[in-house]
TrEMBL record:
SUPFAM superfamilies to which the protein is assigned, alphabetical: HprK N-terminal domain-like, P-loop containing nucleoside triphosphate hydrolases
Protein name: DRTGG domain-containing protein
Gene3D superfamilies the UniProt entry points to: HprK N-terminal domain-like, P-loop containing nucleotide triphosphate hydrolases
A Pfam family that the UniProt record links to this protein: AAA_26
Domain called DRTGG: residue spans: 213-318
Species whose genome carries this gene: Desulfomicrobium apsheronum
Subunit (UniProt): Homohexamer.
Length: 353
């Protein structure tokens, strides 16, 4: 049995997607795949046993149903934090190692998923670097492009992990950055001994969210076309400009939520007639009867929220960049992306499988 740790330079980088993609691909090739998430930051109870919400989800996708106490031996709940921050944090690594060995008994490959960044959990000795070294396994580190890549961090990881760093995956790469990455940064990182296992391009679907979930996250209410609240939003457009300018931008924005003040019926009507994914009306202002009727006829959900337009736009940005991978269509799409882009041949050779 061999193990592979899926870590990242920061939270919300795509660890679940990569773990599921690798697991499903290896299962398809006939390998017996196990999974664990040593440190869980999303406490959830299932059948009276405490585990981690992400771990439960990934297990379901991989068709596994192991004991949550083994899959996530360390759960960061309030009780854990109290102990950790009052100096009563025990040595948790033996518990993690025992769980790893137990889960891996009848497996060919164990996928060990990280939580947060490679340094998350350092305050209690359960950070990704410590887990990789203690279990004696190799690691893949994901770096998600957010304005730039964390190449300093990746070089530091190479120095810390040495041969235990199997390689890195660069995620969410925008088209405008591809040439610089291919011609400059990729060769530079490989010259530092960092293997680039794959470069995953930006994909709007992977950041998409259902209208119903969006309303919930914004603390809003869907007041029209509730039966269409399963449709997905991939991005957003703020409708604070003049109608003529708004129309120009709107034509270029597919599958967008339009954020607009509840008193801007002119922009609301243009967005509705243009078949936007949904309208998000700010300031807790309800639309007039004409807008309500057109929204019902055109089957466009309207979400009313309390916050002002600027606050909602900031929240939307955070939601779309951090939305959890939960929809079946996104899982299938993400898994196909992972299996087609990762250098599996190199990965399997390095793991000796």
């Amino acid at each position: 049995m061999v193990g592979i740790y899926v870590g990242a330079t920061s939270g919300y980088s795509g660890k679940n997607m990569i773990a599921m993609g690798i697991g499903l691909k290896l299962q398809k090739e006939g390998y017996r795949v196990g999974y664990m998430k040593p440190v869980g930051a999303l406490p959830q109870e299932k059948n009276g046993v405490l585990g981690d919400a992400d771990a439960f989800f990934v297990q379901d996708i991989l068709g596994l149903s192991e004991n949550p106490a083994l899959v996530t031996p360390v759960v960061v709940d309030q009780d854990f934090k109290m102990k950790a921050f009052t100096g009563k944090c025990e040595d948790l690594m033996p518990r993690i190692k025992t769980a790893y060995e137990e889960l891996g008994k009848d497996k060919d490959v164990m996928i060990v998923a990280g939580s947060g960044s490679m340094y998350s959990g350092k305050y209690c000795g359960v950070d990704g670097i410590s887990v990789v070294k203690s279990l004696g396994i190799k690691s893949i580190i994901i770096d998600r492009y957010v304005k730039e890549l964390n190449y300093d961090y990746l070089i530091a990881m190479k120095e810390l992990l040495g041969e235990q760093l199997l390689g890195v995956l660069l995620n969410d790469i925008p088209p405008v950055f591809k040439e610089e990455l291919d011609s400059l940064l990729h060769p530079f990182m490989e010259s530092k001994g960092i293997k680039i296992l794959g470069k995953i391009p930006s994909d709007p679907l992977m950041g998409a969210i259902k209208v119903a979930d969006l309303a919930d996250r914004l603390g809003g209410k869907v007041i029209t076309a509730q039966d269409k609240s399963e449709r997905v939003v991939e991005n957003f457009l703020i409708g604070t400009m003049q109608v003529e300018n708004f129309m120009t931008h709107f034509r270029k924005s597919k599958k967008s939520a339009i954020i607009v003040g509840g008193d801007r019926s002119d922009v609301q009507l243009v967005a509705l007639e243009g078949q936007c994914q949904c309208l998000v009306l700010t300031g807790n202002l309800y639309p007039n009867d004409i807008i309500m009727t057109r929204a019902e006829v055109l089957e466009v959900p309207i979400v009313v929220v309390r916050d002002d337009t600027f606050t909602v736009a900031k929240k939307m940005e955070a939601i779309l960049s951090r939305h959890k991978l939960r929809d079946v269509i996104k899982i299938q799409h993400g898994s196909q992306l992972v299996s087609s882009i990762i250098d599996f041949q190199y990965m399997k050779e390095s793991l000796g499988i």
